[in-house]
Specification:
By secondary structure, the protein is of the alpha/beta class. The chain is 40% helix and 14% strand. The protein is globular, with a radius of gyration of 27 Å. Pfam families: Actin (PF00022), F-box (PF00646).
Length: 443
Amino acid sequence: MATLLKKVWESVSTRSVLSLEMSSSDHRGFDESSLGEFDRIPMDILMNILKLSGPKSAAKMGMLCKSWRSLVSDNGLWVFFLQNQLVEPWDSILFGETKLALGYPLESFSSQMMPLSFMEVYSKRVALPGSVIIDGGSGYCKFGWSKYDCPSGRSATFLEFGNIESPMYSRLRHFFATIYGRMRVKTSLHPVVVSVPLCHYDDTESAKASRQQLKEAIHSVLFDMNVPSVCAVNQATLALYAARRTSGIVVNIGFQVTSIVPILHGKVMRKVGVEVVGLGALKLTGHLRELMQQNNIRFESMYTVRALKENLCYVAQDYEAEFSKDTRASSEANGEGWFTLSKERFQTGEILFRPSMAGVRAMGLHEAVALCVDHCHAAELTCDDSWFKTVVLSGGSACLPGLAGCRRNCMGFFLLPYPMVSESFLHHMVQTQLGLGRGLLAI
């Protein structure tokens, strides 16, 4: 194999000289459709040689002549490089390039997409710098890098910077400056993806104006800080992209409320209606605290309760039958030792379906999803009703074991578990929308 690769490089250098000589003699006597001695080598062996040589060497070979260029430009070769040279999952790359590459608004039909050159896809992704990800949640903000699976840190939301009378611009400026300071990175070196919390759910003119004002303030602040490009996307849309879908219903379990959001071709269908349930991660933690207090389980802080919720709680498939089982389990909390929970483990998550257990007058999660499905069906936005039959869970509380497979009487389908994209930092979903120049792409 080493000898064969050596012959390839000898051919490259020889043909480079021939190309220069032929350019001065009008290319007479040279057949550019031939690979020379390598015509006798089977094509699959040649492709294996190119795979072993690596993407940089393969690209250099493609500069030799039209024949080598045609061989090196084979999509299968660069799909191999994308699958083996980059850390991004191949299905995510394919979704990003076929669904998101053209930006917003998204194409309604994938058949309208132009044929892809994965050689160009590879070169663009290698040249693209890592993106800064900022998830502006309602409870607290998480930030980090697109190339990592977990956030680098977290801070208070921008609403907690300054005071209520401070202008939006100054509060956002302080907020973003704090994050960049903690990340120790220059603002001018990397594009940024901002996850915007869902707010102003209505389709009224005042709600539209409020959403537009927030976006414009975010863009204005970041561009004034010399950020090269900005992609501001709402959390529900990013969660749908993380599930490699552009249409569906997103159940976003936030810090204070849960939103059921219908999305068609990447756009929130506010005219159909966004259902809001007054239950979120904060209420789940508070309910577990009350259950622990009722059972004389002592703790020192809410951080301990939240840790126990994340480590021990789950959603029962049959709530009544769960009481007859031995559900005891233990977990260690930082600085407070070990805690053992039993029925509190499944009683906590049950309030998502029975809010009255926590003293909340609201419909259950399954009822809200069923209502959203009915509204989508009645709206008749497309001739194909399959777009709203994909339901994606997002938010930290969506990771409660058993929630994704929980089937209730009012639900004729299963919820599909996918983590929030801004938490898992699946940057390949949005980096195709980030230009290297001073661009603006907002959804």
